[in-house]
Amino acid sequence: MKKRVAVLISGRGSNMRVLVEAAKAADYPAEIVLVVSNRLDAAGLAWAREGGIPTAAIDHKAFASREAFDTAIDAALRAARVDLVALAGFMRLQSAGFVEAWAGRQINIHPSLLPLFKGLHPARQALQAGVRISGCTVHFVSRDMDAGPIIAQAAVPVLPSDTEDTLAARILIAEHRLYPLALQLVATGRARLDGHLVRIEAPVNQAQLVCSPDTAGAC
Ligand code: GRF
Known about the structure:
Elements: E1 3-9, H1 14-22, E2 30-37, H2 43-50, E3 55-57, H3 66-79, E4 84-87, H4 96-101, E5 106-110, H5 122-129, E6 133-140, E7 150-157, H6 164-187, E8 191-194, E9 197-200, H7 206-209, E10 210-211
Parallel strand pairs: 1-2, 1-4, 2-3, 4-5, 7-10
Antiparallel strand pairs: 5-6, 6-7, 8-9
Helix pairs in contact: 1-6, 5-6
The structure holds 5-O-phosphono-beta-D-ribofuranosylamine.
């Protein structure tokens, strides 16, 4: 049985698209049954609609509180009988109740090697810190932003000529490889929340957990 996945977005939705594409494979363990956006004008929302994927546009500004907005999201997820939630550029902090309700069933992608460079502008932060390697992380969502247990990471080089835009673009390419692999691990139950860590069940292709310039061909 494929896991039923909802992808939550706020913008262009390129990570959502690669999850949708990956899930078209007959042997992929998840199907994208819903795309939710808090922004009615999100480009990703239009793309999903055109592709015939069920969508929900839930404008956070229409709700009096964060909790009320999260309750509406939760209702949409339950109505679609969603098993797993994948955040993909979803720019809203979630209430503690929502995070707890979906603990171990909600994942996020962040464009840095966490725990470094949480929050906004991680590529800018990487350049300011002078690191030679950055990348992206898929993690379970916990109460603290960008701090949940790590499932998989991909590394990319930081080049001397990089600007924030060129580094972010290189990281985005790695994100597009990593996110479908990480969702696959979670959907098959091979990556499971275990306290503050993620337990990985063998057998697992190491390239699914760590993508680096060396393993890029493999992942
Ligand atoms: C990605 O860099 C993701 O890691 C971050 O927000 C960006 C969303 O891009 N959380 P997209 O909407 O998936 O194209």
